[in-house]
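[recover] target loaded
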């Protein structure tokens, strides 16, 4: 009897598997602490530091060979982001449809954007802590930018994350080289790692970030190795474990030591990989070829349609998109970044259900006209190129006939279609409702 019952149940399960299509086919194994992250697909990156005051990008110190003394006396000591307005930034992020923000707590220049108490992070004279609060005129305000941003994120219901650079051009343990830092000794190395962890402890205790986004981890890649290539894969593993001890559900990127499959997600930079990584991933991107505020790049904002399509393409390949803004030295957002965020927001107001909670395209090959995303019983066709003959060929999902095809905008206009060789041939309206990306949804009943 037991055998018969088991057989019957197996038969029911098989029937279910065959006839229940399409269902949400999770593209990757998603641990529960990352559900929100994988569903949201869209976040804001903020690069803000003393380099924002200088206005020549966050690499200026290294690129222009500026000494620590010069950098700190002429640049960092004048950095005063007094017009930083967390609520405005969060409003822009939310209107654009972003669900999380990651801000630089410490970039390669070494300036801590919070009131760190870790003693070794002093300025070049060794007398003052090299932080926004202790070193810059902004300290007089008694404000805490990271806390303001965190609280604004909490109030808006979006997540808050912090960026932290492993290399540090200010810390006495390191000599600033080209894109690498040279560690002074094994003892200095051990002490720096200890102190870095103390800073991370401060950050987690104080701001309870949902994401910890590391960078500046590449010294191991230096051909002229410095002190056993000073930051190693093992250091990356230790750092990851340390972060999880501090906060078990924190999400940590792969740059605890990139290239070794560490961390919770992979981080391609300024590109959407053609072949999507085999685990969760996020690409970070600039709007204008600059991370930190760079005056000369204020004229080089990319066209919104390319940013939008890149974002959608990342999602269609199963990724997240972290789009950067580089506020000016006074902390205000640039006009160019506001415009782009507003424009993306207008598109998201109409089409965001083809983004949130979706998984990557169920079809291997991308069509010539755009890309696909998928959620539950819907397959979304993101049409970048509108065909002149008003016909669009969409693949049938699992060889099934869809129950309906419609424009995914507020009109919800049903579109006529026929099926040919496992393809849905859709009759398009004459004009694309959105030339950048019109979304057409194909729905399947079972
Ligand atoms: O060197 C940095 C750069 O300044 C910027 O912060 C980007 C953002 O991903 N990451 C580094 C290079 O990988």
């Amino acid at each position: 009897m037991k055998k018969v019952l088991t057989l019957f149940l197996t038969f029911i399960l098989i029937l279910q598997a065959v006839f229940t299509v399409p269902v949400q086919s999770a593209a990757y194994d998603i641990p529960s602490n990352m559900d929100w992250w994988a569903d949201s697909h869209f976040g804001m990156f903020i690069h803000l530091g003393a380099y924002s005051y200088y206005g020549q990008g966050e690499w200026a110190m290294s690129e222009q060979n500026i000494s620590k003394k010069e950098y700190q006396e002429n640049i960092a000591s004048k950095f005063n982001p007094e017009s930083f307005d967390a609520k405005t930034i969060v409003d822009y992020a939310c209107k654009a449809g972003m669900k999380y923000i990651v801000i630089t707590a410490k970039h390669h220049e070494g300036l801590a954007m919070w009131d760190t108490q870790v003693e070794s992070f002093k300025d070049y004279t060794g007398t003052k802590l090299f932080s926004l609060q202790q070193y810059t005129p902004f300290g007089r305000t008694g404000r805490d930018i990271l806390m303001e941003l965190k609280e604004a994120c909490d109030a808006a219901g979006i997540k808050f994350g912090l960026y932290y650079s492993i290399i540090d051009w200010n810390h006495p343990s390191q000599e600033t080289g080209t894109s690498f830092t040279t560690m002074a000794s094994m003892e200095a190395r051990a002490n720096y790692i200890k102190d870095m962890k103390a800073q991370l402890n401060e950050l987690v205790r104080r701001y309870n970030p949902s994401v910890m986004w590391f960078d500046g981890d590449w010294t191991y890649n230096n051909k002229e190795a410095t002190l056993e290539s000073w930051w190693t894969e093992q250091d990356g593993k230790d750092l990851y474990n340390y972060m999880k001890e501090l906060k078990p559900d924190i999400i940590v990127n792969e740059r605890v030591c990139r290239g070794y499959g560490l961390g919770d997600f992979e981080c391609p930079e300024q590109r959407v990989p053609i072949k999507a990584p085999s685990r969760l991933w996020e690409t970070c991107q600039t709007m204008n070829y600059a991370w930190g505020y760079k005056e000369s790049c204020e004229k080089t904002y990319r066209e919104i349609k390319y940013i939008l399509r890149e974002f959608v393409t990342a999602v269609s390949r199963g990724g997240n998109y972290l789009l950067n803004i580089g506020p000016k030295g006074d902390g205000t957002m640039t006009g160019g970044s506001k415009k782009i965020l507003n424009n993306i927001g207008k598109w998201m107001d109409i089409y965001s259900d083809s983004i949130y909670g979706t998984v990557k395209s169920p079809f291997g090959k991308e069509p010539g006209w755009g890309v696909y995303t998928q959620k539950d019983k819907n397959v979304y066709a993101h049409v970048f190129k509108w065909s002149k003959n008003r016909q669009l060929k969409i693949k049938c999902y699992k060889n099934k006939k869809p129950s309906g095809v419609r424009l995914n905008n507020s009109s919800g206009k049903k579109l006529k279609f026929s099926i040919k060789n496992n393809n849905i041939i859709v009759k398009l309206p004459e004009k694309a409702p959105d030339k950048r990306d019109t979304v057409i949804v194909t729905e399947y009943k079972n």
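[recover] notes: The pocket of FHN is lined by residues 58-59, 215, 269, 284, 291 (CB under 6 Å).
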